[in-house]
Amino acid sequence: xxxxxxxxxxxxxxxxxxxxxxxxxxxxxxxxxxxxxxxxxxxxxxxxxxxxxxxxxxxxxxxxxxxxxxxxxxxxxxxxxxxxxxxxxxxxxxxxxxxxxxxxxxxxxxxxxxxxxxxxxxxxxxxxxxxxxxxxxxxxxxxxxxxxxxxxxxxxxxxxxxxxxxxxxxxxxxxxxxxxxxxxxxxxxxxxxxxxxxxxxxxxxxxxxxxxxxxxxxxxxxxxxxxxxxxxxxxxxxxxxxxxxxxxxxxxxxxxxxxxxxxxxxxxxxxxxxxxxxxxxxxxxxxxxxxxxxxxxxxxxxxxxxxxxxxxxxxxxxxxxxxxxxxx
Length: 328
Known about the structure:
Layout: E1 5-6, H1 16-23, H2 26-44, H3 55-66, H4 71-82, H5 87-102, E2 109-118, E3 123-124, H6 126-135, E4 139-142, H7 150-161, E5 180-189, E6 202-207, E7 213-231, E8 234-240, E9 247-252, H8 257-262, H9 268-275, E10 277-286, H10 297-302, E11 320-321
Parallel strand pairs: 2-4
Antiparallel strand pairs: 1-4, 2-5, 3-11, 6-7, 7-8, 7-10, 8-9
Helix pairs in contact: 1-5, 2-5, 3-4, 3-5
C-alpha cells in the first residue's frame, strides 16, 4: 500500500510570553487532569472487569480536538479536561506534560506520539492543523479514511510508536462520513527502583473479586522499607521506578474496589499519597498481564462532554467541515 500523504500546514507554536502567562495555571490544570483520569476510570469500568487505560493519552487526543471546538462544545472540553481553564492554559499544560514525560531519567523509556489523519474530502482549518503539529507535535497525514488502505497505514503507525505492543487498533476502514482522526500512542517501559529477587517468587492462591481462586506467581519484598498508605482499613503501597518520578500504586481495599474508587477525586488521591509513610512491610504482589480495549464516547458524555458527540449540537467549526455537513 502507498504511504499516507504527509500534509503540511504552518505549525502554530506557543510563544515564550504565552508560556509564562499561562504557566501559573498549569498546576491547577494538572490537578484537573488527575481528576479527569480518575473519573474516566470510574466511568469506563464495567463491574467485575479489569480496565487498563491511559488518561494522559485520552487527555492529549481530546485536547487536540478541543482546539477545533467552539461555543458550548469548547466550554465542555474546558470544563471536563481543565475544570474551566482557558484553551490556552490547557495547551500550555499539555505541552509541558509532554516535555516532562519526554525527559524522565533512569532506565525509563517513554514515548508519546500524536497524529492527525484527515480525509481528502474534508476541509480542515489551516490553524487547527497547525496547532496539532505545533503544540502537540502531531504528525499530519492525508488518507482516504473509508478506503482499505487506512487499516494497514494506521495500524503500522500505532505499532511503530508502541514498540509493537499494540499491533492493531482498527480492523476495518471508517465510514464514508469520517473526516478526521486524532490519534495518540503511548509506550512506557520502567524498571523498579528496588528490584524483586526472582528467587523469592512463590506460587500462592489469588482470590478474585467473584470469590474464585487460582494459583499465581507472587513477587515478594521481605521486611523492606516502602511507602505505605493506610486509610481506615484500606491499605496500599507505592513502588517507585528508577527514574525517580513515576511509581506503581498497588491498593488492597477493605471492601469492593468500585466503592473505594468512588472515595477518590483529584484532591483525595494526592492527600493519600502525601500522608503515606515509610514503613517496613512484607509485600506479596501477584504477577499479572492486563489488556483492554474499549469505547470511551459514552463515558466521556456521562462526564459532561455531551455536545461533542451530538450531531445536531456539536460545534467543530474551528476544526473544519465535511462534505455532508458539520463535524461531530
